[in-house]
């Protein structure tokens, strides 16, 4: 609503959690009534832990130190036959995040989503959509597995911005289209994996 602009306007003094919390309310409405679970609160990705365990076994065979999953701000999941399946990892940072930290976060999220997608590939799925946010600005991207080249590649779908005043209301249309695209993609993922 228009009176909510004030919540988003003062973005340089807000924490990462505040940005995520406000955005989560939008996602709750978009994903209501679906089989997609929005798991937040720095939840761990089991796919990233499995990848770390495999790398440790291959490259550090004598190292028996415990490995831990990468912590994720928002993980989309679904359940099939009592097995939880991760669909995508999404990350938020506060608006005054340095470029170095932002790039490290982007790299981490790409690696986590590659681990998640590798699990989905075994179910016949070759791409997933995910988001990255810094303050009120973010983007939606598609991560794809190319089986012939055995590589992952990321493609920008759209940039998004949360409007902070009435003059930016057009940004809300782009944002909502992107979020519904994300919802449809995740529902297709669920359908695809249940058919394989």
TrEMBL record:
<protein>
    <submittedName>
        <fullName>Uncharacterized protein</fullName>
    </submittedName>
</protein>
């Amino acid at each position: 609503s228009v009176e909510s602009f004030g919540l988003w306007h003062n973005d340089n003094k807000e924490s990462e959690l505040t940005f995520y919390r406000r955005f989560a309310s939008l996602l709750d409405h978009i994903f209501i009534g679906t089989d997609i679970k929005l798991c937040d609160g720095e939840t761990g990705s089991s796919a990233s832990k499995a990848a770390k365990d495999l790398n440790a076994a291959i490259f550090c065979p004598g190292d028996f130190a415990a490995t831990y999953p990468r912590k994720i701000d928002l993980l989309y999941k679904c359940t099939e036959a009592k097995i939880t399946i991760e669909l995508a990892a999404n990350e938020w940072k506060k608006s005054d995040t340095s470029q170095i930290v932002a790039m490290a976060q982007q790299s981490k999220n790409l690696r986590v989503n590659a681990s998640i997608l590798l699990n989905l590939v075994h179910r016949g799925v070759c791409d997933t959509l995910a988001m990255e946010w810094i303050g009120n600005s973010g983007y939606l991207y598609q991560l794809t597995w190319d089986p012939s080249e055995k590589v992952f590649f990321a493609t920008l779908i759209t940039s998004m911005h949360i409007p902070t005043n009435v003059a930016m209301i057009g940004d809300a249309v782009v944002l909502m289209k992107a979020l519904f695209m994300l919802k449809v993609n995740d529902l297709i993922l669920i359908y695809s994996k249940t058919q394989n």
